[in-house]
Amino acid sequence: MLEIRNRRVIVTGSSSGIGLDAAHLLHEAGAEVCLVARRGEVLAEVSAELGDRAWWYACDVSDAGQVEGLAGAVKARWGAADGLVNNAGIAPMATLEDTEPDAWDRVFEINVRGPYLLCRGLGPMLRDGENPAVVNISSSLADRAIPGMMAYNASKAALNHMTRCLALEWAPSVRVNAIMPAVVDTPIHDGRGMSREDVEGMGAMHPLGRIGQPRDISAMVLFLLSDASSWMTGAVIPVDGGILAA
Fold this sequence. Notes:
- The structure is a single chain.
- This protein is an alpha/beta fold.
- Helix content is 42%, strand content 15%.
- It contains seven helices and seven strands; from the N terminus they run βαβαβαβαβαβααβ.
- The protein has a seven-stranded parallel β-sheet with strand order 3-2-1-4-5-6-7, sandwiched between helices.
């Protein structure tokens, strides 16, 4: 396993799905992990399960004041940070006609404004870190749009370009990369009224014949935070079962 021993990493959206699995894997690889999500009671359970080298902070990443509070907590506890995983996101399904302006704004608040606020707030501490890196969790839908998810598709396309822009602005001190998953088996599908069979059935869309598992994405997160990827920045990497090649 790649190691990031003693690295200090903040993981947003870490109460479930990809963020939760990434927090576990990074902790196993030796990192100190700050768990961030809105549901503090869940984070407290996860932090207790991980034990040493894990702590939590409840935060809505779209709220500038709450992100400022998170940055202050990180500064007080660690002084500097070595990694940031921008994983928090929402993915409502709606056509243009069914997407109310407030719903459109909320998608961009979480999926784009959130990473912007976190990078801006934590940037000074990242620059003081050890081989620091940011990993943004995007989506294959940023490049291969589908109908009925316009707000989500557009928000992830914006996140990809923000990744490239920030990689240039922060080079050479902080690396910034993104991952584009396709369909991954996470609780995000539960709110769409999809059955277990519906979710697994989407595996047929992928050339590798299955949907992804959180560990498929977490493994790339670990690589991008490790020194093994030290000559990579501004990359937007599909981890998608081959769907973008189809």
